[in-house]
Amino acid sequence: QNYTINIHMCIHGVGFKKSTPWKPRDIWKFARKEMGTPDMHIDTRLNKTVWAKGIRNVSYHIHVRWSRKHNEDEESSNKLYTVVTYIPVTTFKHLQIVNMKSWGCHDN
């Protein structure tokens, strides 16, 4: 599943230099709720993209792909895990945008 996440709506009301650390957590929570798997793996390119502009300049949208995979680790209690990867796009026009504010992004 591909999603364009509107992070700007989620970090509204968060302090100036505290908004960027919320982004990976909110993406993780949103993907966990949508995919229904408690075990999450976030790609390093996604984390680098989130922090690319630093803590002060937050990007407003991000395009991600979630895929559910079988867990090969026998010791794990979960059969499935979700991989969250970054999809680079040139423009966000004509992409389905998911409003993260509707499900409650973070706890203030």
Automatic annotation (TrEMBL):
| Cited Gene3D superfamilies | 3.10.440.10
Which ranges of the sequence are coiled-coil?
A: none
Q: Keyword Ribosomal protein: yes or no?
A: yes
What SUPFAM superfamilies does the entry give?
Ribosomal protein L31e (SSF54575)
Record's keyword terms, sorted: Ribonucleoprotein, Ribosomal protein
Question: In its keyword annotation, does this UniProt entry include Plastid?
Answer: no
The entry sums up its family as follows: Belongs to the eukaryotic ribosomal protein eL31 family.
The protein's matches in PANTHER family, at most eight in alphabetical order, are given as: 60S RIBOSOMAL PROTEIN L31
Protein name stated in the entry: Large ribosomal subunit protein eL31
Instruction: Give the organism, scientific name.
Output: Otolemur garnettii
